Amino acid sequence: MENEIVKLDSFVFTDDYIKDIKNILSQAKNQSYKTVNSIMIQANWLIGCRIVEQEQNGKDRAAYGEKVIENLSKELNKELGSGMSVAHLKNCRQFYLTFPLKEISYTLCSQLSWSHIRLIMRLDTEQERNYYIQEAKQGNWSVRELERNIKTDMFHRIVKNQLPSTELSSAVHSHVKDPYILEFLGIKPEIKSNEKDMENAIITHLEKFLLEMGKGFSFVERQMHVKTETQDFYIDLVFYNYILKCFVIIDLKQGELKHQDIGQMDMYVRMFDSLKKADDDNPTIGIILCADKDESIVKYSVLNESQQIFASKYKTVLPTEEELQREIDRNRRFLLESMGDK
């Protein structure tokens, strides 16, 4: 508790004493919740450990294990009232089985809630679990945000979009998804809409769009005016990524990707590097968000070799798990085939 006290002692006062007191109480409650949360998660891990130890002493392990939990639930609820249901005790057991090392399980305690952990521990692989643990902690994801990102398979949409490359280009690939899931825009496929409708919807739901984009993105401008010696151009959406230290420009396409779209984005990126990029910025990234794309156009265009220009599909409705997996696998196969052609 000493760290929590130090944080409150270092509180900076303002001229509004009522507001200060409210903020002090709010911070104290928040710190108290974190402390209680950490202790309860540790308790759940220890409960799971003890249940597993008891089950392993049973003669018929599967049947005996279920009996252990049922009997334990009855006994605990007699003493403590409700709260120790069979489902909760099974979750404790799963927590221990998923994270058997005490040091690893306890590192989850300070920043993730029990609700976060229940979602993460059901994932199939250690790599996937570690990814969501780190992202949820760094991004301060709510339980709802974590659930959505798992449901839309953010891990595979990023990981399977990466290929061996230079350090910088690898970092770039780790920030580009394919496909992007934009169901929160409220754009229905059966209702006719255009790029302007989509742009307006993104601005309306900018916070959710930034969460879908990933770490480090901040919004700069919509319809940014870029002027050359002879012409005026307007870029749909401009962002800056402080992790990559570069601008990210987005061109929205309601229909299928065309070779003219690729040429236009190539020009936008070159113009932006020349006219807007600072000397200490990394090269600008261009992302064409399109409803569909023909892989042959991607294969025989500048997209196939460029480390600055990407074409990603977007979906305005949540796909099924099977549909999303097929899309991710198809993109992965195409990327590997493209590498084999080089």
What does this structure look like?
It is a single chain. A 6-stranded mixed beta sheet has the order 1-6-5-4-3-2, with helices on both faces. It has 2 domains: 2-110, no CATH class; 154-341, Trna Endonuclease, Chain: A, domain 1 (3-Layer(aba) Sandwich), CATH 3.40.1350. A hairpin with a 4-residue loop joins strand 3 and strand 4. It is an alpha/beta fold and 342 residues long. The chain has helices spanning 2-9, 17-56, 61-80, 86-98, 102-107, 114-120, 126-138, 143-151, 154-159, 167-173, 195-204, 206-213, 259-275, 295-299, 321-341, and strands spanning 180-181, 217-227, 232-241, 246-256, 285-292, 309-315.
How would you concisely characterize the structure shown here?
This protein has 342 residues and is an alpha/beta fold.
CATH topology tier name of the largest domain: Trna Endonuclease, Chain: A, domain 1
* N-to-C SSE string, H for helix and E for strand: HHHHHHHHHHEHHEEEHEHEH
- The percentage of residues in β strands lies in 5-15%
How large, in whole angstroms, is the Cα Rg? 25 Å
Question: Main sheet?
Answer: 6 strands, mixed
The tally of structural domains comes to: 2
Sum up the structure in keywords.
342 residues, alpha/beta, Trna Endonuclease, Chain: A, domain 1, six-stranded mixed beta sheet, 6 strands, 56% helix, globular, disordered N terminus
How are the secondary structure elements laid out?
Elements: H1 2-9, H2 17-56, H3 61-80, H4 86-98, H5 102-107, H6 114-120, H7 126-138, H8 143-151, H9 154-159, H10 167-173, E1 180-181, H11 195-204, H12 206-213, E2 217-227, E3 232-241, E4 246-256, H13 259-275, E5 285-292, H14 295-299, E6 309-315, H15 321-341
Parallel strand pairs: 1-6, 4-5, 5-6
Antiparallel strand pairs: 2-3, 3-4
Helix pairs in contact: 2-3, 2-4, 11-12
